[in-house]
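User: structure tokens for this one?
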Amino acid sequence: MKVKLIHAHFLISIGDYSNERIGFTVEPEDGDTVDSIVSTLRTEAKKAVGPKADELYDAQSSLRNECYALEKKLTKVRSEWDATAEFLKAQGIKPDAPPMPQFNNLLSAVKVEEESVSEAEIVDGF
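Assistant:
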């Protein structure tokens, strides 16, 4: 199977609830893979939108790392809380020591980027 054309379009957030859709149609050259072409096109789309897109991607990455660190800390604190509550119960100091709250009603994360890649004109027999 040989891919003759690749069409990729990207929806990039430019802030203030605004997005810009950029698309490309390319003809692969020998040795190109679909993944490498899409990766290159994604970079070109970000360049076309300008530095605002790069700033948003960097901020997103930074916030993801911060969330991961906070979740790690929360897991540690939850473990310490539960150990302390068990100790207080075992010693009879506070038999009704509650477990740490689960925080079930927090907002979930919002996906800020959408991307789709489609392949066209696939010819068998090459």
